[in-house]
Structures are given as structure tokens and as C-alpha cells.
Write a structure and sequence with these properties.
The chain is mainly β. It contains two helices and 16 strands. Strands 1-2-3-5-6-7-8-10-11-14-15-16 form a twelve-stranded antiparallel barrel. Strands 9-12-13 form a three-stranded antiparallel sheet, with helices on one face.
């Protein structure tokens, strides 16, 4: 059972601008290419709950990633993410395991290399690189009789230095936005354990609701519909593939955003599985619920 089997991925989407009539919406789970709205600092707070299961096994996780972002120019941004995590594994008839703590810190940078304004539309593309550092603890005592890769997945940290490469593009209009990103996560080895690399594709359709609310109060309510595909390679332990790991998954995540002001936004999303073709006997994601706030200062 690799870390992804908890159904939770640390949120690494860049926080940019939060509102205003000229600002596009920002996706909840899809990386956004829109670097060039503002120069300054921003903060993001989120809570994500996820549950996964199979007969005899229940897994749950809570992640609270706090992000700080600095944009020195309208074409670049840099950020740091410090996630707090809680993980629980229940094996029926054998017991329950619970861990918590500060997970691995992530550093990210983004550069917008394409921007094409059009009449009532705006096309953009950006590249993002995320570096995950092995800062989280990996020495919490695990008493359940599970394989070493599962014991490592239950730890707050992974022990490895990992890299996430992403390209994001989008078309922004006055009533709807279309966004997509494609990426690859390269996981390295620690203590003879390596979680499988991941390839992912995400798309996002956003539609602005209640235009009268924007005209009268300067606020916006946005509906989102995000699709995700994730291919995960098998985990490795002592240079051998872990049988119950790897596979392909499709997810659908409807969501809502309420842009309260030009500096404040609240959002929520629920991610549901459309298809999970996982190797071996892995817990399958039941649902993942995300709530968050964003603030520009």
C-alpha cells in the first residue's frame, strides 16, 4: 500500500489572485497557469479528508497543507507548502494504527512562458517544478503486521526527495474557463523503499454563476467540474516490485468557489472515483473532500 492508496495527494496548486471582475477563477485541484495577475504575497489554507477501503481494510487520511506564495513579477511565482497529516489504518480483527505530524515540506516555482490576450478571452501556459524534501518523520512505531512499504506509507514523511514536473494551460473568458495540466512525479528511494512514479492529467471546466452578484456586489460564485487521470507505477522494495501497488485511476471532482472580495475566497470540492484499475489487493478511494480558504495580502 503506497502513499497514494490513502487517496490523498498533497495540494500543490499555486495560489494566485482571489477575485475581482477581471480576474479568472482558479481551479481547486487542477494546477492553474495564471501567474501574471498580481505581484505580491498570498496564503492558502486547506483541509482534505479522504477514505479508502477494501474488505477487511479501512484507510483514512487528513491533510492540512499551508501554503505561502510570493510572486516577484507577473510571470513568476515561488512558494512553500508545509502539510500537517493524520493517517489511520484499520485491519479488521488485527487492530488499528494512527500517526500524525508535519509531513515533508515542498518548495515550488512557476514560470508563465505564454500569454495571449484576445477579445473577451485570455490564453496562458506555464511550467511548474515542485521539490519535495525529506523533512517529515519516518520513525513512528508501527505495531500492525504489515509490509515495510505500508509502514513507510503510514509515516508522516516519506524519507525521499521527490520531483514533480507540470505543464498547465488555460483559456479564460468572462463566463467560463477551460484549464488542463499534465505532469510527472518522480519519486526517489530511501531505506530501500521507493514509491512508484506517477503520471497524471487533469482538466477543469469552470462556469461563473449569478452574474448579477458580480455586478451588484463585486462577488463571484463559480462552479467547477474537474477530471483527473493518474497512472502509478509499482512501488519498489529492495529493487523488487511490491505486488499490491500501482494502477490507473479516473476521478471526477465537482466543486464550488465563492469569491467574497478581491482578497478573500472560500472553496469546497468532493472527489469521487469513476474507475480504479489497481494492481493486487489495494484499498480503493471512496471519496476525498476538500475545503479551503485563500487570502492575498
Amino acid at each position: 500500500m503506497a502513499k497514494r492508496q490513502f487517496g490523498v495527494t498533497v495540494v500543490v496548486a499555486i495560489l494566485l489572485l482571489l477575485g475581482g471582475k477581471e480576474s479568472p477563477a482558479l481551479p481547486i485541484r487542477t494546477t492553474d497557469p495564471n501567474v501574471g495577475i498580481f505581484s505580491g504575497s498570498a496564503a492558502l489554507g486547506r483541509v482534505e479528508f479522504a477514505e479508502a477501503s477494501r474488505p477487511g481494510v479501512d484507510v483514512s487520511a487528513t491533510i492540512v497543507p499551508t501554503m505561502f506564495l510570493y510572486s516577484p513579477t507577473t510571470y513568476s511565482a515561488f512558494g512553500i507548502v508545509a502539510p500537517y497529516v493524520e493517517k489511520r489504518l484499520n485491519l479488521k480483527g488485527k487492530g488499528d494504527e494512527f500517526t500524525q505530524g508535519i509531513s515533508d515540506i515542498m518548495l515550488l516555482g512557476r514560470y508563465k512562458f505564454f500569454s495571449l490576450p484576445q477579445k473577451q478571452a485570455w490564453n496562458q501556459a506555464a511550467f511548474q517544478l515542485t521539490l519535495k524534501l525529506p523533512t517529515g518523520p519516518t520513525d513512528r512505531r508501527i505495531n500492525l503486521p504489515v509490509p515495510p512499504s505500508v509502514k513507510r506509507a503510514l509515516q508522516p514523511g516519506t524519507g525521499s526527495t521527490d520531483f514533480i514536473f507540470e505543464f498547465a494551460g488555460g483559456r479564460f473568458t468572462t463566463r467560463y474557463n477551460l484549464l488542463a495540466n499534465i505532469g510527472y512525479r518522480l519519486n526517489t528511494e530511501d531505506d530501500e523503499i521507493s514509491f512508484g512514479d506517477q503520471f497524471f492529467v487533469k482538466t477543469d471546466l469552470e462556469y461563473f454563476l449569478f452574474p448579477w452578484l458580480t455586478r451588484k456586489h463585486g462577488q463571484e460564485v463559480i462552479s467547477l467540474l474537474e477530471f483527473s487521470f493518474v497512472h502509478a507505477e509499482r512501488d519498489q522494495f529492495k529493487d523488487r516490485g511490491v505486488p499490491n501497488s500501482g494502477g490507473n485511476s479516473f476521478f471526477l471532482a465537482p466543486g464550488l468557489q465563492w469569491i467574497v472580495s478581491e482578497r478573500f475566497l472560500v472553496e469546497t470540492s468532493i472527489q469521487l472515483p469513476l474507475s480504479q484499475d489497481l494492481a493486487g489487493k489495494q484499498p480503493m478511494l471512496d471519496q476525498s473532500v476538500l475545503v479551503g480558504v485563500r487570502f492575498v495580502y
